[in-house]
Amino acid sequence: MYELAEKMIIHFFGFFGFNRYYWFSRSISEISMAYIIKNELNMMHEHYM
To answer: DSSP per residue over 1-49, as a string?
Structure first.
């Protein structure tokens, strides 16, 4: 019984840790992509003006 509870707790926390890491990395990649796109647009704007 105790072993099962321990496995469940580890699985539970592992899942939440993974989820948090996944959302964190996703938001960082989205922010960096937006930043890169903004820079590209600025460069194009300066180049063609």
So the answer is: -HHHHHHHHHHHHHHHHHHHHHHHHHHHHHHHHHHHHHHHHHHHHHHH-
Q: State both tokens at 39.
A: 């820079």
Q: What is the CA radius of gyration of the chain?
A: 21
pLDDT computed for residue 49 by the predictor: 63
Whole-angstrom distance, CA of residue 21 vs CA of residue 27: 10
pLDDT averaged per 10 residues, the chain (length 49): 76 72 82 88 78
